[in-house]
Specification:
Shape: globular
Largest sheet: 4 strands, mixed
Oligomer: single chain
Distance between the termini: 29 Å
Bound molecules: flavin-adenine dinucleotide
Low-confidence stretches: none
Radius of gyration: 21 Å
Structural class: alpha+beta
Helix content: 40-55%
Mean pLDDT: 96
Number of strands: 10
Strand content: 15-25%
Number of helices: 12
Order of helices and strands: HHHHHHEEEEEEEEHEEHHHHH
Length: 382
Amino acid sequence: MDFSLSGPEAELVELCREFATKEIAVRAPAAWEAATCPTDLLREMGQLGLLGMLIPEEWGGIGMSTVGFVAAIEELGQADQSVATAWQAHVTIGSLPLYLFGNDTQRERWLRPLAEGRALGAFGLTEPDAGSDTRAVSTRAERRDGGWLINGRKAFISNAGTDMSFGVTLLARTESAGGSEPGFGSFVVEKDTPGFTMGPKMRGIGWRGLDTRELFFDDAWVPDDHLVGDPNVGLSQFLRTLEVGRISIAALSLSLTQAVLKMATEYARQRQQFGRPISKFQAVQFKLADIATELEAARWLTYRAAYLRDTGQPYLKEASMAKLKASRVATQAASEAVQIHGGIGYMLDSPVARFYCDSKVLEIGEGTNEIQHVVIARTLGC
Ligand SMILES: Cc1cc2nc3c(=O)[nH]c(=O)nc-3n(C[C@H](O)[C@H](O)[C@H](O)COP(=O)(O)OP(=O)(O)OC[C@H]3O[C@@H](n4cnc5c(N)ncnc54)[C@H](O)[C@@H]3O)c2cc1C
């Protein structure tokens, strides 16, 4: 397996590193305090081509490999997890359904502005009664007047409510696909569609800059050309999209682990107790050594899943393993990094506390870690 990047990809990752240090790290703490999505930063990232990272040039993107994308997340996520997550969600689940399953007219109309960084994409799967159990989606799309009448409610949808959002690509129950199986279709619902409203931005423990809301559809009518792909295979389209999303969350977890490892190491080297730096105590050294080792293990799983995708091989199991391992490593590393900082690490003004708050959701979003276990166990024949 070769995880090395091409010259242009390595340059782009370098550009991400620079943007992360000079722009995101400096401005993101204010976004955390204000708990608003920093769309000014996302627009600037769009101008650099970063919002179309996984979309080919033909549709306005830059056609980066998945391995290159993971490397870019590693850079951006070290500066701020909210910005990185709004961005990665846009690049993966917010844009890919249109690229992978849309027709050329739909790609021109909705994907190009997303890839060129002129709009932000959202993915509407989860509902109040359909989280891990995706087949329980009850939002309905019924054929009406040459289009589809959508009724229902979506929960925890990210990137749909900002001043840069175009709307949402959502999953809705359609007619029966035959037999007892329900059919599901994917639909684009633009934000000014009558009958489409949303709740206020939700307040999380972390990812405070991410715009996550409830969406409501009350007789929201969309024309037939808003249906993406076959009206009966939307669920498998959404699940396929989530496979890439899981690699992305794994990469975000790597970036968080790398960030807290760096902070904890630097702090341990300068904090003096009992007349010496606390880094000289073996208990502290072992924590840091464990984080570094686990990070490396998680990194290999994540790059391997990305490599398999890039080389056209199945990667369902590997994406779940990467997400499971990397998110666990991140939450444990964040906790240990706060421990190494002692009291100051507990205070919200300290950057390590911010990363600690951001870590938990990595075990929940895009399929909880229990669901990753289910996916992996299924591939073992269970
Ligand atoms: C900040 C944030 C942003 C999000 N953004 C989006 C978004 O943009 N689009 C979107 O569609 N969704 C989004 N989500 C939703 C997210 O994907 C769901 O929260 C997640 O899939 C879990 O669903 P749930 O919250 O309903 O939990 P539930 O499914 O109710 O699970 C509750 C608990 O039960 C466990 N459990 C459930 N079923 C099983 C099982 N079969 N075996 C073992 N344990 C099980 C779970 O692992 C979990 O621990 C977001 C969530 C958050 C927190």
